[in-house]
Q: What sequence folds into this?
């Protein structure tokens, strides 16, 4: 299979791609055509079906898989596929793993590692809370392992939420080993739960977009609520411990202007915010560098608010 | 009874006041004394018991009512009562209503007015939700009617939460009559529920201070959660309506930097934020003017970030 | 007449529209053509005259009314009219009311309502000031009733200034009935005068653009000056009252960064700022919703700084 | 005469000082006394009259001149005069120049210099406007020459407004000689008028405090209005020139958050803002250094937002 | 020679221009072409070589001088040259001074003026430091005289750094004559050195782009280091004087957010910041006005954050 | 020895303390006395010598060690020692380690650990640079190991700079193991050098205050310069590597407003900023908790901008 990121003007295309989005549009002359976004795991490309009513063009819709035959051109500096034939495929003809961005890390392995950390939690209430989510709640586990951690920005791929959560949890574990004032059980539980609201804030792939609930309530408040409900259902769960755990989730963006309704008041909340911020920035920079075409200066980057430079290829 | 706000240097005091706070302190010479804050509904005054171990001084503690005998002096520009005798009173000796700040408006009347507005809500789910809180939940009603709306700033008195809620709801009703795009049922329900989390954020008088839950979670998230739980318990309550109601509560501070985890996305949430802000500013200015000693310029005011001027006494 | 908002690609056009703006441009091949903005009360559309020197094309200029014959196409996602014939019309051939955006509310009715409120002002000096503007000054009344309240944003239509002023005044009247510390006469007078500088800041339709004076001085300072001159011309007008009235106008944007050279120092100025802000936000949201094509999420809105959602069509 | 800045604990005082402010206060024991602020041109000192009803104490009030006999002590690190005798003086007994802060520069000389610059203005309308203010309007000239440029901060002394205005005007003249795009006549006229509103914003010495008009309207808008009225009274004064002159005054603080309702739109307004800012900062730093007690680091300074260092005494 | 700023659609071009940048691109049909930016001292123009492999098209590269034959068209509102023939020229065929933006002021004259000011410095250490840079260091002098003061914004032309430095130095000299607390030697030395790091931050013309060192370290820190090294190499140079000089350079942007790692702590640093800011704003506005096509309002300007108006052409 | 933190009103004092600061002051009655700040490693206490000329009071000065005899009282809520006798001690009478705040961690052990990490650096130039500082430069090593990392805030004790540097370096090592895009050699070298300018910015204990150089230049620029000089002295040190190392130091505060003249452009600079920020916040919170008197809520904390809560003592 020829991946979308490897196409160049003049290429012929004859492969199966996912239709991420189809739009019916009209040319200047009033003629109808399809404007389609094709996707595989390496990216997306714009495609046009200029003769939608011709024989070779099946009916198809968003998230269908399409066997595309066409030519690659360049329009306004971007690639475009002129589609001559488009056949809608059936399950079995394609391997979905090739069409959706997916974590480079092994999902099973990451999940096992998370369970291992849960095993080290001493506090029985926190451990029980974690187990009810991550061991016993099948629906939650499925969603959690498939979710991305974002619509764009960083970790925007299948398994991204698990990968980010594990990375933040391990950073927190390192902090707990270095700064003895930290309550490790509270901190690591908060780390594992901090973004669990994202399982409901962003719908699963291939859609991966904000839900109504996500827009109206947001993953921070939803995560706080999920943890609160679970804790209240566990007999004897200390009220104050529940509130501190909820506080860590509410405060994990660190500042009001980043959507946290509380600033961190306890050391564990400060630590969680630092770990979350560290993993977000390191992963964002990593993803930037992975897409670098020419080494050296990459131009102004909005997220880092400065000109970015790629050092890895310097032989220093 | 002689109210605290009417005392002046040289007065003798022989009345019952509430002990808001008692501190055991030591003079430069190492002698122990009590530093006491006395309170009635007109304010607070500092008092000193220089001979705490003498015969006329009973043992007493915070929130006890004390029959005080002493003299008023002026120290560093503030009044101070030198307490000679202090007798701890028993229930029945005093009328608590005289000792706590209380809304000038009639509590029963305001509550009745609120119920009247609930009666005008058309949507059966929203009406049921309101009734379950404001008609059927005795514990909630008691707390709601006694709560202040703040620790300091505006509406910091018994009945303040009810007064503020009613005022915001009526402003919203006026908006709904003027701006027809507003969904009146949604807006007024949100108005009545917007600060209900304060019943748990701030403890009741005489303490009137932030609870742990209030500090860790905050009334915005707690109110959102209270409404969510209630709505989920009502059969058939539309999910989207619940989310919009919760959104109004989450967004009612209007800006992230004021502690709202969401900015208003629907017109009703914008309206609620405007009504809340309007009532807060009008009441704050009213309370400022009530305490004015000399007309004209009042000096720089932190809340309004400028020099404040009292116009009421100008005969213009 | 076929309104511009109803055009779609492929339509033929044969109606009179106003020429809002005409530009003489040159094609890549060096050929001259006209790029024209046509307007009616429902909006504007881009039009091209590719053969400006052909027989069917009259000479015409900005704000002329043109009888247009042509075809509608779509270019870069926007409509465009290719004009074949363009005849310049004479007064009498068209009804100007169809070509300019105009308040949905009846102008006479609104004006009468404003006069009614002036009749309720008790203070003789304030009443006289209002009457000299709104009853006796014909030129002012004409401009005031025709002005928009803005170039874009909210109330950007004929009668918009009157509609906004009336709405703010009535909000202030509601405040005065609820918050007894407010000086109703001062507040309502300030409300009626707060944007009168806009009669000179923005030129009348069809131009509706900033004047030199508007850009150099601005409606806030101009309104302050207009009120000051008028008050000084009324014998016995109390100086302090004039200054407070001017202060309300200067401070009505509430914050320095919104162009107010003073922050509100008196309760009436705070109230006026709240009413102005409330009406601006409610009207802006209303205009947004009026233009909604598909219900639900509308995307990021700059003015409200968040994603906007249309609730009216939810059947909840 | 012994100046206040030279007093030290233990000194006897037997000289005439101005009473800037007198307050009747009460001791802890309920005894009345006077708390008085004495002033001469070198500063102010706190004084107490513990026996206000004794024979040697005349009745006196704010801005009276008092022949004081007493002793200097130190209280909480500040000097205090215990007044034994206080005789109210009559005009002629004292030289007012010794009691009020006054510019170090010669007032006549500065005024003459300003008139000289007016003589160089070419535009007849601007020249006439300046002459009507600075040559013909006796009341204005008197106020302008006596005013301070501020209540505190910089140029807070008699003649300060003239000194600051002259300095800004000469800076602008230098700019005009270096940057040929500047319209010298417009710029220098704006410079001479930019703070003329201060003659009404701050009352004259010895009070030197904000007036009602100053607080409600502010010197920026008042200056704009003064210039506008004058220009409109001069036959043939070009409207656009008047607006540009007013714009320079409105925009001379440079930023909305510093109270300018307009940002500078023309090069002359930008230049005036730069000159005003330059003279303000240079004079503020100069006044700081004049009060330096020990060379080197002076501690954090609010105005400059950093630790200030005195370089003048370094022998480098 | 026909300058680029004078071209209009339909013109034929037959002159030598510099190739600022050449890009090999591909048409929609997959055909290769050159997209070239041509430059002369009056500006830049886009050019296309549609037949790069035809006989008349030499091989050429960035900064080569090209004898171009072609036609001027207009594309998307901008000029474009369709190049038919392109011959690479040899040194001697063209006058480089015609192809690079260059200060309007005489470079020798400005340099001589700078040396004249160095001659007036009294402090022997500062004088020696200046002479070692500006009199003895040939490489530095060459770079300093050729450098621009910016990549874009103001003074972005050959000689711009010298012109800006001289202008700032003379402003400082004026300040020193007016504000006697300023140490003229320190201030003028700092002024002459303040931007010397730009000789290394921005490469010389025709490239005139940020260097690696410029991006990683920046001219502020580089200038501080250059001055420090030089001072340490001069025997007896007072340490404190060196630090104050370095401080002036580090603090000359005035605020942290403009990239200064220190805020001005001494009066000379405050003065240098004011002079730098004044010259930058005056020159930026001057360059804006030089490019004005139609008088009056110029639209919103990002740098001045407001709508800009051109006054020079008003006959007032 | 009785430590200062354990004193309470009424205690007698008869021990040796360090005089951190002595001030000669005057009572209200004009009598001279000494106001002294005594220090040991547990804190500081105010002391007064009311009879400085009496027999038992030796002459002494800042940083002298004094054998104090006196009584502890409470004044305005703070402890105060009334000193009856004060004998100046000679070296040998006291153990300096008891009088200065010192890291709880073993200095030799930390230094050894740092050397161990240097041993793991692969790049020969970076390794050589580190060794020349941390292994060969005795004066630097001594200063580095004794310095605090701050005047107040966090790590304000002997060894604080070493402790902070080691902690940041180890955090960076953890990052390098988790985020493979990071250049470990560059990152760890930058971490070890990032605050080395503090050896010159803050003088050693017991003074521990900003130096002139520290105030004028700052540790960020000084550290950049130290690293630059060293790198240039090492033959063959790659220029680009040096610039990237300097960039990491310049950018390690992350934002302009925190005094960094560059924002992080390379991933290593981002990582260093995160590690520095993490260690600063964790250590600051740790030091806060160490000083907690009563568990639970600690009141508003300026650094964390919220109310702080101590979790460690909760038995959850």
A:
């Amino acid at each position: 299979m020829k991946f979308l990121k490897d196409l160049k003007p003049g290429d012929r295309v004859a492969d199966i791609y996912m239709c991420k989005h189809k739009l019916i549009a009209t040319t200047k002359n009033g003629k109808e055509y399809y404007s389609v976004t094709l996707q595989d795991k390496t990216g997306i490309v714009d495609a046009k079906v200029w003769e939608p009513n011709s024989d070779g063009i099946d009916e198809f819709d968003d998230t269908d898989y399409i066997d595309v035959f066409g030519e690659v051109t360049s329009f306004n500096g971007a690639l475009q596929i002129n589609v001559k034939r488009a056949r809608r495929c059936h399950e079995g003809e394609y391997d979905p793993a090739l069409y959706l961005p997916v974590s480079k890390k092994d999902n099973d392995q990451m999940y096992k590692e998370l369970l291992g950390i849960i095993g080290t939690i001493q506090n029985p209430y926190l451990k029980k809370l974690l187990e009810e989510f991550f061991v016993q709640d099948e629906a939650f586990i499925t969603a959690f392992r498939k979710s991305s951690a974002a619509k764009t920005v960083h970790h925007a791929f299948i398994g991204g939420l698990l990968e980010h959560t594990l990375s933040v949890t391990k950073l927190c574990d390192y902090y707990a080993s270095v700064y003895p004032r930290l309550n490790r059980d509270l901190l690591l539980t908060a780390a594992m739960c901090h973004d669990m609201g994202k399982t409901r804030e962003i719908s699963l792939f291939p859609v991966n977009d904000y839900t109504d609930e996500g827009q109206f309530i947001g993953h921070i408040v939803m995560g706080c609520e999920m943890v609160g409900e679970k804790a209240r259902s566990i007999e004897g769960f200390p009220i104050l411990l529940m509130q501190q755990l909820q506080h860590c989730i509410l405060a994990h963006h660190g500042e009001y202007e980043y959507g946290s309704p509380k600033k961190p008041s306890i050391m564990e909340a400060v630590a969680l915010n630092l770990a979350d911020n560290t993993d977000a920035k390191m992963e964002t920079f990593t993803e930037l560098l992975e897409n670098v075409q020419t080494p050296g200066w990459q131009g102004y980057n909005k997220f880092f608010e400065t000109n970015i430079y790629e050092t890895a290829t310097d032989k220093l």
The longest strand of chain E covers residues 12-26. Residues 267-290 of chain E form the longest helix (24 residues). The CA atoms of residues 69 and 207 of chain E lie 25 Å apart. Chain E has ten helices and seven strands.
